[in-house]
Write a structure and sequence with these properties.
Blueprint: H1 2-18, E1 28-32, E2 37-40, E3 48-54, H2 57-75, E4 82-90, H3 98-108, E5 117-121, H4 125-131, E6 140-144, E7 150-155, H5 160-174
């Protein structure tokens, strides 16, 4: 019975994520850890963009497992010309302590990733619905094409297969 329940949850997440493909990423404005305002997807049009999202502390911890592989693949001396953002979403009662959360993030995240780490503060309901962010303790990733349309989605813990799929899509578009 547990296997069936787990399989149903996995299928729901997969179907939810796949349903987002082809849609334009919703407008989201936040501030990087370098205090630069960024509006997704408006400020990233013209380049592929990888966006990782977390909206709970547990999801944020899982998102951090993506930092090094994403940095090595898409940022550090990369052959790819890709915008990359890790987004921490702060909403509700936590908005009152957003400054404290930001200070902790600046201390806990490697400074080379500060310009790639975005803090969004505000309501998240529309993003949860529009992007299919069903499991709050799960990080979500979206690969956007040059026009801001979602061309690949994945969620959960890091795996080589997930990042390789994003690379494959970018390479195919470059040909």
């Amino acid at each position: 019975m547990k296997k069936i329940h787990l399989l149903a949850i996995c299928l729901l997440i997969f179907v939810s994520a796949q349903a987002q493909k082809g849609k334009t990423f919703p407008n989201m404005t936040g501030t990087t850890l370098e205090d630069k305002q960024v509006s997704l997807p408006k400020d990233t049009k013209g380049k592929y963009t990888l966006v990782g999202i977390a909206y709970s502390q547990k999801a944020d911890e899982a998102l951090k497992n993506w930092f090094q592989p994403v940095y090595e693949t898409f940022i550090q001396d990369s052959e790819y010309d890709v915008n990359t953002y890790f987004v921490g979403m702060i909403s509700g009662i936590k908005e009152a302590v957003a400054g404290t959360i930001e200070k902790k993030m600046k201390k806990g995240i490697d400074p080379v990733l500060h310009k790639h780490t975005l803090i969004y503060t505000g309501p998240i309901g529309d993003f949860k619905d529009g992007l299919g962010l069903k499991e709050k303790d799960t990080p979500y990733f979206f690969l956007l094409d040059k026009d801001g349309k979602i061309v690949y989605t994945t969620s959960g813990t890091y795996s080589d297969a997930k990042i390789e799929k994003a690379e494959e899509i970018i390479e195919e578009a470059s040909e």
